[in-house]
Specification:
The chain is built from 24 helices and 16 strands. It has 620 residues and is of the alpha/beta class. The strands form four sheets. The chain has a six-stranded parallel beta sheet. It has a six-stranded parallel beta sheet with strand order 13-12-11-14-15-16, sandwiched between helices. The structure holds iron/sulfur cluster and Broken Fe4S4 cluster. Residues 45-48, 50-53, 65-67, 69, 74, 195 line the site of iron/sulfur cluster. Broken Fe4S4 cluster (MSK) binds at residues 293-294, 310-311, 332, 439-440, 469-470, 510-511, 546, 548.
Length: 620
């Protein structure tokens, strides 16, 4: 089992799953092996019904699909479609948040008051919306309207592109990759990858970059910023993590997925005295709300809600036998959950009309009647508590405290209101650079091993780590999100962390909150008067698996940040595409991808990159 995870609670629950006769993600991976070599290389195509086609990677068989597409075209098209799917996922999430803001401003969503008026006004100012003497409701109406327009805007660029340093904007304009509208880029990517449209791999990859930028500086940024307006901008908060947060004597509800719209309100519903009374009547000591994956990150960042685990622990949470309901919304939810739950008492409740699961109970979440829907869902979990089979319950004791909540605003506050102390620390070398470590787990790799090995190497070398998503949860579970973890850092980073009382790894939120990292990068570049690509920065997704990660990596590179992937993307079937991404892009956007499965070697790549960037800036 220790080849599957470094997380003791995961190992214990895999063993329990085996003895309970439960099939998990690792069993299904084994059943898929050997996985399709054509798929791994990205050289199969089923974009039309003359296919499916595949290219012979050894050069003995077919070198072209039926239509004449070669490996370059097929690999590039597949990559662009993955980017489009990832960008669409983040952006549709963003659209949901703006729609909630609009409904709130129109008075149709009374359970969603505006929590951060200062942020609302700051964003309104970015959109040149008048704020003086106007009501919060009117400003919110105008802001929601203008932000919704970003999805199909005809003004030719997205508003948040203005946050990007001048040099980078000029570069994007010269390459014609400035994102023009969120829906437009996704639609154009799907169009260009249809049979017989764009067959030039360079042209396709540039469109992939533009689409990804519409995510990073569009859909994701919108999701982050407007979630802060509606649910509050995160500030440092403490909590606990890992499967040990489940309580044997309480109703355990896990919120899993990505959107804060439902999860935030459930956190409040679970405090309802009437529901707490009902729980007590069932013999439970209380209602224990826990998060998982990025919905978990959203409520962890804002409320310090315990997080039960990251991507590979979703089935294992059910295997504890102690989860009364898993409430899911969108993204990263395994379709296997109802199957696993059928062996225990756990209810799987889906809530998004966009994401239904055979075998789950569906309760459509209605933002116009949010609290009542949330109460109804919590009540189902409470009622289910008495169906638990005590003999099936085994909660691993593993848990760890964390400190999270590092929004851009929180970082600024910790620094005394300006980025200058951070810039000074970078200049002096106390902090040699910053690396964003993000992304998923992937059962092909030992869970959390790459995240933790990579991060520990970096902080030892005085590199500040900012994290999101399942990578940040991995850090939470291992104690790296505690100020005490500064003892693992190099002397310079340690002294900065100790003087500010912060951990060496800053949890900045969910997957869409990588937009916060981009905002810090742009702001530091603006303070120094350089491009983002000049900064001692890097990005990494050590254990990524989702199409969203493909979009993220592409917008990070297109924004000028060297990015290391720890799992191999399906592009190696085209030397030209792989070459463009790992070397040619340097001349185009000033950054490239690297692929390195060994996390220690990956850390060395990041350290060397940061050293080279420091040298070029004249820093020691
Ligand atoms: Fe085959 Fe071309 Fe159709 Fe793809 S688009 S399936 S390569 S014929
Ligand atoms: S939840 S996209 S597994 S990070 Fe954002 Fe985790 Fe990856 Fe989903």
């Amino acid at each position: 089992m220790s080849d599957k995870s470094v997380d003791q609670s995961t190992i214990k629950m895999i063993k329990k799953a085996k003895s309970d006769g439960i099939e998990t993600v690792w069993d299904r991976l084994a059943a898929q092996e050997p996985q399709c070599g054509f798929g791994q290389l990205g050289i199969c195509c089923r974009n039309c019904n003359m296919g499916p086609c595949r290219i012979d990677p050894f050069g003995d068989g077919a070198s072209h699909g039926v239509c004449g597409a070669n490996a370059d075209t097929i690999v590039a098209r597949n990559l662009v479609r993955a980017i489009a799917a990832g960008a669409a996922s983040h952006s549709d999430h963003g659209r949901g948040i703006v729609s909630t803001l609009l409904a709130s401003a129109q008075g149709h969503a009374p359970d969603y008051p505006i929590k951060d008026e200062a942020k609302l006004k700051a964003l309104a100012a970015e959109y040149s919306i008048a704020v003086e003497g106007r009501s919060v409701k009117d400003i919110a109406l105008d802001l929601a309207g203008q932000v919704l327009d970003e999805f199909g805007t005809r003004k030719g660029f997205l508003q948040f592109v203005n946050r990007v340093p001048e040099k980078r904007r000029a570069l994007w304009n010269s390459l014609d990759i400035t994102p023009r509208g969120i829906d437009r880029e996704v639609v154009e990517s799907m169009h260009r990858t249809h049979v017989g449209v764009d067959n030039d791999y360079v042209s396709l990859i540039l469109q992939g970059m533009r689409t990804a930028l519409s995510d990073g500086w569009g859909g994701s940024a919108i999701a982050t910023e407007l979630s802060d307006v509606l649910f509050g901008t995160p500030s440092p908060v403490k909590g606990t993590s890992n499967l040990g947060v489940l309580r044997e004597d309480q109703v355990n509800i896990i919120l899993h997925g990505h959107e804060p719209t439902l999860s935030d309100i459930i956190v409040h519903a679970a405090r309802d005295p009437e529901l707490l009374k009902e729980a007590r009547e069932k013999g439970a000591a209380g209602i224990n709300i826990c998060g998982m994956c990025c919905t978990g990150n959203e409520i962890l960042m804002r409320h310090g809600v315990p997080v039960a685990g990251n991507f590979l622990q979703q089935e294992l949470a059910i295997v504890t036998g102690a989860v009364d309901a898993i409430i899911v919304d969108i993204q990263c939810i395994m379709p296997s959950l109802p199957q696993v739950a059928s062996c225990y008492h756990t209810k799987i409740i889906s809530t998004s009309p966009k994401a239904k699961f055979p075998g789950a109970e569906h309760i459509s979440f209605d933002e116009h009647n949010a609290m009542n829907t949330a109460r109804k869902i919590v009540r189902l979990a409470v009622e289910n508590y008495s169906n638990r089979s005590p003999e099936k319950v085994s909660i691993p004791s593993d848990q760890m405290e964390y400190m999270a909540g590092f929004s851009v605003e929180a970082i600024l506050e910790a620094l005394g209101g300006s980025l200058n102390p951070l810039v000074d620390a970078i200049k002096s070398g106390s902090i040699r650079g910053i690396v964003g470590v993000v992304g998923c787990n992937n059962p092909k790799y030992k869970q959390d091993y790459s995240h933790l090995t990579f991060v520990r190497e970096l902080i030892k070398n005085d590199i500040l780590v900012v994290g999101t998503g399942c990578a940040a949860i991995a850090c939470a579970k291992s104690g790296l999100l505690l100020p005490a973890a500064a003892s693992e850092a190099g002397e310079g980073l340690r002294s900065v962390c100790r003087s500010l009382g912060i951990p060496p790894v800053l949890h900045m939120g969910s997957c869409v909150d990588i937009s916060r990292i981009m905002q810090v990068a742009a702001a530091v570049a603006n303070v120094l008067g350089v491009d983002i690509s000049d900064l001692p920065l890097a990005g990494a997704a050590p254990e990524w698996m989702s199409e969203k990660a493909v979009s993220i990596g592409t917008y990070v590179v297109s924004s000028g940040i060297f990015t290391i992937l720890g799992t191999i993307p399906p592009v190696l079937g085209s030397k030209n595409v792989a070459g463009l991404l790992t070397s040619g892009a340097e001349k185009v956007v000033g950054a490239v991808f690297a692929v390195e499965e060994d996390p220690a070697a990956a850390a060395l790549l990041a350290i060397n990159h940061i050293t080279a960037k420091r040298k070029a800036l004249g820093l020691g």
